[in-house]
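In response to a reviewer's request, we include the raw inputs and outputs for one of the modeled complexes. The two entities were modeled together in a single run.
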Amino acid sequence: MSEISSILLDNAVNEFSKLPGIGRKTALRMVLHLLRQSEADVSAFSNAMIDLKQGIHYCKVCHNISDSDVCAICADASRDDKTICVVENIKDVMSIENTQQYKGLYHVLGGVISPMNGVGPADLEIASLVERVQQGGIEELIFALSPTMEGDTTCFYISRRLQNTSLKLTVLARGVAVGDELEYADEVTLGRSIVNRMPFDYNK
Amino acid sequence: MSEISSILLDNAVNEFSKLPGIGRKTALRMVLHLLRQSEADVSAFSNAMIDLKQGIHYCKVCHNISDSDVCAICADASRDDKTICVVENIKDVMSIENTQQYKGLYHVLGGVISPMNGVGPADLEIASLVERVQQGGIEELIFALSPTMEGDTTCFYISRRLQNTSLKLTVLARGVAVGDELEYADEVTLGRSIVNRMPFDYNK
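The model returned the following structure tokens for the whole complex.
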């Protein structure tokens, strides 16, 4: 858009269009919106990003995002500290917390093993997970990774590293999504959900 | 999303979700994207917004956005300074510049007359437009406002204020959009395009 008559405006639009899913048209709409706000509001917006980047901590136990050295979940004494849910990233922690079905702790790997993308076990928080388990007190490890080749590889790798422990290893149930029409379920999922069929329970 | 474990993160997400069309999920995706960038990149992003807000000028002639007192369009001697295109906002200037079909000047009203929203003639740059015309040298005024009740009211109001001048007043052609299927054109547009039918030209 060579027709933008201001270098300052053009800069702001360029910065915005670097964000995921934001094209130049949307970026322009955002920037013109900000321009209509007060200077204090624009400062608040900008400073929130700088403060976040400069002030953010990652929990030294589970590597979740945190404002302090240990995150609120790890610091919460009411949670079950015998169970660790292994996830790929902090968004997954939020998703699982949203369900309000899980009261244990987490371990954020920071990715999954993906030779195609040059991500090996050493790039992930796997050593710190093994160490956490070896310190004792953990009874169950739940793998909550994506049901992809990379996710499965990561589960397999971690389970091999932990094979000398008496840890119970579990994985998220896979099957037809709740509320889904059966005819739209893919064959692999449907096939697995038949093989792994569960006893029918009137009360659920 | 009470599950966000960081106040800094929560602040950043809140600020982002104030932008038009951005919900909390999208905001979180944006913020996590920024968090993965270097501190320099985040500063560049934030400073672009602050610099824009603090440094932006509006052209004192046409009220277009500008880095200096007079915008690049008004300062361009190669443009036709006898024609002024009256638009609602700076986005419209960009849209018309994008067509590369117009070589005259602009006048940005900053809105249209809308009693429903409490916008009267005094809230818009109408007085400065009348003054610009009265200084002489302008031969044609093109109304490029939205074909809505408010747009039409604004055209009418401005034309009344200028009725003692010998100015040629024109309005954007209205009709079936280029590339549109006739069956999807609305009745009013189709009706007007029959009434205002144009001579067929082989060369166009």
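As requested, we also summarize the result in words. Chain B touches chain A through 57 residues (CB under 8 Å). The longest helix of chain B spans residues 39-55.
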